[in-house]
Amino acid sequence: MTEMFVQLKLGDQRYKSKTLCKSANPQWREQFDFHYFSDRMGILDIEVWGKDSRKHEERLGTCKVDIAALPLKQANCLELPLESCLGALLMLITLTPCAGVSVSDLCVCPLADPSERKQIAQRYCLQNSLKDMKDVGILQVKVLKAVDLLAADFSGKSDPFCLLELGNDRLQTHTIYKNLNPEWNKVFTFPIKDIHDVLEVTVFDEDGDKPPDFLGKVAIPLLSIRDGRPNCYILKNKDLEQAFKGAIYLEMDLIYNPVKASIRTFTPREKRFVEDSRKLSKKILSRDVDRVKRITMAMWNTIQFLKSCFQWESTLRSAVAFVVFLVAVWNFELYMIPLALLLLFIYNFIILTKGKTGSIQDSQESTDVDEEEYDDDKESEKKGLIERIYMVQDIVSTVQNILEEIASFGERIKNTFNWTVPFLSFLACLILAVATVALYFIPLRYIVLIWGINKFTKKLRNPYAIDNNELLDFLSRVPSDVQKVQYAELRPCSSHSPLRKKRSAV
């Protein structure tokens, strides 16, 4: 065994830790949030697994924790001996009461009552910005109806129900049988832990004991919600890249504290429950290669532009660049770095207000992916061949994920400056403005001294602190170009799938 990881399970909720190189005292330092209901069994199952160079996994040890026996509102430091092997697992477990999800009828709508709405708004007002930092806000979703759904049954009808997902919270409506225009009229309430989460609403067809059939899906970023107005959302396919058949009507209300939301932006995102890993796709791999190529070309063009200034290919351009260089270097101060980035934000904002930016359709054309997936994994009697195929697939899948990360990182930096999410861009401007003022008035040695003291004493002040990078946590909230397409709201006039149009024309 060369690598180790931990799996945690509470009921249907499962998490998997990051994988570390095997050692006698591995330190994961990760945080996972579970939903625990006091009226249910609360046994947390923990398994330590090892993995060899051939990706074969073996369980090394297990332990259990009875959540119900732990006291509330305090960090319980537990040293759990592992069964079937030597060693122990050190964990910090904290039970915190919090607002849970709820489902009700339209007649019992929490935010419809003025007194209750005022009480909730008071809970998230600016005066309470430093209380219960994980409770950022509340989201209320009214699932009204769907129209013109796909007929999934032989009778020409469907048995639709609706599934709502926000982070790790999942709720669903009841099923309406034999209907292509169902009316659910249900109200769902979600606590918000991160204002940058995305609400996913999926419509399925109930199919008895078989897995439900997919009827359409929409993804709605919380910051794009228009409060208190019914909205018609065109359903998309599973990849959220093309229009599907039908539409769904939702009405949403969002109340949150902007200070808590801003502070939460610079902390690690909540990890998602363990799900099936994404299959290898030739189309997605090709798309990720193109995305990385575009970022590389943009950097190459910038380098060539700088070279052309040195080579005096254009006399006017090189002369202006030379004068700017002399003036900038002669008058350079450290505070000018965040100031220059701040001016870039302002410049892009002015261009945005003048309507000179490209439309979302340009990004959709460049990131369009067909519904067809790359399908291997055919049965074979030769086990050696199968292992080689899995090994190659694992390597290519790793390359695909690395390309995805590189492309997304570059696109997120670009989209931060492009004001794709105004909340995040405004927050970045605020940080840069504060940095400019601080560097102007405070000597650099004092700033470095404060930073160094904080870094050196962090583990002394909190031995179990989880390391994080605030800049990467911020960028993780900015959507990539692919996510921009997935989150884009389709207009009702474009409800026909481009893929179907293409096929019908042929």
Automatic annotation (TrEMBL):
Topology in the lipid bilayer: Multi-pass membrane protein
Chain intervals for the UniProt region annotation (Disordered): 360-380
Subcellular location: Membrane
Organism listed in the record: Acinonyx jubatus
Record's compositionally biased regions (Acidic residues): 365-378
A family per Pfam: PRT_C
Transmembrane segments: 320-347, 423-451
Protein name: Multiple C2 and transmembrane domain-containing protein 2 isoform X7
Record gene name: MCTP2
Chief location bin: membrane
UniProt keyword list: Calcium, Membrane, Metal-binding, Repeat, Transmembrane, Transmembrane helix
Residue intervals of the C2 domain: 1-80, 114-235
